[in-house]
Amino acid sequence: YIVCKFHDEWRETVQNHLERCLAFSCTVSFFFSPQALFHCDQVQYTLVPVTGWQDLGTAFLEHKEQVCSYFVLINCGVNVDLLETLQPEEDSIFFICDTHRPVDVVNVYNDTQIKLLIKQDDDLGVPSYDDIFRDDEGEDEDADGGDSGNESDGSSEPSGKRRRFDELISPCLSHLKGTCIYRREILFDYEQYEYHGTSAAMVMFELAWVMTKDTKDMLWWSIIGLTDQWVHDKITHMKYVTDIATLQRHVSRHNHRNEDEENSLSIDCMRISFEYDLRLALYQHWSLYESICNSCYTSCSFKLWSMNGQKKLQEFLADMGLPLKQVRQKFNSMDMSIKENLREVIEESANKFGMRDIRVQTFGVHFGFKNRFLASDVVHAAASLLENVEKDESATDNFIKALDCLSRSNIERLHLGIDLAKKKLKAIQQTVASCICTNLILSQGPFLYCHLLEGTPDVKLFSKPLALTLLCKYLLKAFVFSTRNKRCKVLPLIMAAPMDVEKGTVIVLGIPPESETSDKKNFFGRAFEKAAESTSSRTLHDHFDTSNPLDFKDCMASVQNMVINY
């Protein structure tokens, strides 16, 4: 379904049904939800955060009897046979907007109960219907007919008739066997790599735009969804730049839209702007020095885990001509004369030190006259609130708090999330430095492997998928910068961390090799599944991202064999 076709289905459903079960996956990229569209049409709905397939199944069972037969799934459900997984009634209809790829072929070709919201220019590469579901029953019946005809002549006949039967049936069996192998090969080629399509938040915004119900808040949420994909390295640079250009046109359209005088003068008005800003995490809410030290791009470029890296950082600061007193204090407290052209000064010095990509296309927002945030600031804050481990709260409570931080009327919650994000980035930087300096990254033949042990500082933080993903990306990039082994520079990384000490479970993540031209496709999901099958290991593939299995501690040798033969 492209957006326009989906719009017709959605409109008809909204006009004729008043309740929904809205199933949410707990990630940042789709905090923009159909809630705004439901509010516009005065539709009652139930919002259910889910963290994995078990949560989704449980939520479906709990709510299917309470509401009507219409369900909206945001960023979950597209990459499995949903009808087989949930076993719904025949009158149940699922609207799915999911960035996970590949899309399960059954979901693609079942347009009766499954309604997919996918942009027309997203190349899914789905095999043709005939290649996957072609009916060979006619050929089977022909084969059976030949079989019964020969048998009716009696079993005492000479072996010549038996030979004629074999000559008749053998080509049919060979054809059927070849067809099954052909189908398996097609499905294997289609399903072997996991990747991500257009952000669900961005697709939902375009649906609102088609329905002429888009607002600046919706636009800002879609920007956050795209930025989340960039921060967590889920899409290629080209895809990011292309989607940025699309959103930039929407920003220009909204900025030129005539607003009433009350909104334009309101103290909490929103202004979105396109910017080329620095690749320094949270620098406007931190000190410049701390941001440089804890940002992946600059930390890896300087190799700050080494003494030479620290010296190079001091040379960099001296080249910019910035006093250490100014650099080490909060950004808001820096002299205005320094902040006015800070980005240009940093970019000029960064080019001298080989950091030619220190600036990136992004968006910023002003809430009223005081509060200013970059999209990446909000992503880091929301992700930290979502995976907060400082308080023993449920995933649903954390989800609601993360959702609250996106409201312009709840700036305090956003600042709380930013504080948590600073702690997380510091923990990641310290863990990376420790792993590099103590040689915890091991070469296991076709891949690199790192296992965080119990007792490692902040190890509880890395029991969460998003935090572990940032650590894994940061660590692999740092290793590539630090190693002299050319072969190791092109290897993928598998990382394991304790998840539940009492249960003895381990969360494992696999990422592809570090490369600026990487297509961001990940084959570890299938490799993990095959390795678990071959070793009968205790695993739980509960994450919507298949490259995050659990309890995979006793089959690393099988993973190695799978990667070798992949």
From TrEMBL:
Task: Give the record's family classification.
Answer: Belongs to the CDC45 family.
Which interval of the chain is the signal sequence? none
Q: State the UniProt keywords alphabetically.
A: Cell cycle, DNA replication, Nucleus
* Alphabetized GO MF terms: chromatin binding; DNA replication origin binding; single-stranded DNA binding
User: What Pfam families has UniProt attached to this entry?
Assistant: CDC45
* Ranges annotated as biased composition (Low complexity): 149-158
What is the protein name stated in its UniProt record? CDC45 cell division cycle 45 homolog (S. cerevisiae)
- Region Disordered, as annotated, extends over 135-162
